[in-house]
Each structure stands twice: as structure tokens, then as C-alpha cells.
Amino acid sequence: xxxxxxxxxLEKLEKIVKELESGDVNxxxxxxxxxxxxxxxxxxxxxxxxxxxxxSKVLKDNKLEDFKIEES
Length: 72
Hints:
Order of helices and strands: HH
Number of helices: 2
Strand content: under 5%
Distance between the termini: 14 Å
Number of strands: 0
Oligomer: single chain
């Protein structure tokens, strides 16, 4: 299964939050959805931190030829 992009993951996270906020989810499903949402939130946070680090490197080095995006 391919890794979701930040935007895809954020969209899915927002959908889960809306479902949980609606109150129409039974307790067991709510727990599962909450757990999934927390994992997605961490993944999104990690992706943001990685992007910030890459941008900082570009700004520090101020040259693109040494800039590489590493797959995780």
C-alpha cells in the first residue's frame, strides 16, 4: 500500500474528526477512529517537521544543487 501524501492524510483526518464530532459513531468505532486519527496526526506532524527541516537547509545553504529529498 502506497504512503498517503500529506494532503490526502490531512483530508482523511478531517473526515474522521467530523465523524467523531457528529456523535453518530458507536463507542467501539469511535475508539478505533480516534486511534487512527492520532496516528494520522502524528504522521502529518512528522511530515511538517521534515518539510521545515528541508526548507531550513535550503535557506541555510542557499543553493539548490545540493538539495535532495530523501524518501522515508
